[in-house]
Amino acid sequence: MLCQDPNATVRTAIAQRLSVIAQSLNNSSDCVSLLLPCLIELCKDDDSGVREAILNTIAVCLPYFTKESRKTVVLPLLRKCTEQALILRDTSLAVVSKQLAPWLYALKEILSPQETRWFLDTYCRIVNLSAPDSDKSLQILALTCRRQCAYNFPCFAMIYSGDLFIDRLLPILEKFCNENDEEIRCTIAAGFHEILLLRPEEPLLLQIFTELIKTGVVEVIQNLVKDLHKAIPILYQMVKKEQEKRAPVCVSLFGGLL
């Protein structure tokens, strides 16, 4: 099998093309019998480049596997790879950070409550990954992971509601909005209309929205207002409900966008 080739470049190439093969087969039984063993083998590869390639490919392959194989084989494999990346803190963790939301979305219908909670816990662990000042490479990795997590925030906002959204995700959103890294703030601003559309009844989003505007950073504001017309009715209702404490400030800021 090419996935066992002694040359890591060959194994990486196979990992990158596995999704194309799955699409060509277009048969869940064939994908399970022919591709699943290869996927398992590549996920266990000693070469980090091979592991990164297959982790980037899995989300595209998932729809082509049977429900049972996704539940009993692929999901445990993803969890193991994720935990390994968190322990090793190598470049595969950046790939996990990027793919965690696509995996969650593709698997959401087969997840148990405990498995669903694991995805949220893992997301929070990655966001809060600490790096000492003396370890510059880990600092860069942690920043890269946070950037990916910021991009994936709307997906998690879609899956997790109620207390989980308020207690676990809102603090992360506030953290992203106060990040020193402008790319993270711009990413959140660009997707803020999606968050509003997903959670229109969450009044704390209005406060976060105003804080983003008050930064005064041109790039952040440009990203914020680019698609804001899609969520203006929601913002209007939020402002309308804030009759006393925050309404004057919010109305002023909101009016300036119209």
Automatic annotation (TrEMBL):
The keyword RNA-binding does not apply. InterPro entries: ARM-like, ARM-type_fold, HEAT, HEAT_type_2, PPP4R4. HEAT repeats lie at residues 35-72. It comes from the Eukaryota. The keyword Repeat applies. PANTHER family: PROTEIN PHOSPHATASE 4 REGULATORY SUBUNIT 4 PPP4R4 (PTHR21467), SERINE_THREONINE-PROTEIN PHOSPHATASE 4 REGULATORY SUBUNIT 4 (PTHR21467:SF0). GO terms for cellular component: cytosol; protein serine/threonine phosphatase complex. Pfam families: HEAT. It comes from Panagrolaimus superbus. This is HEAT repeat protein.
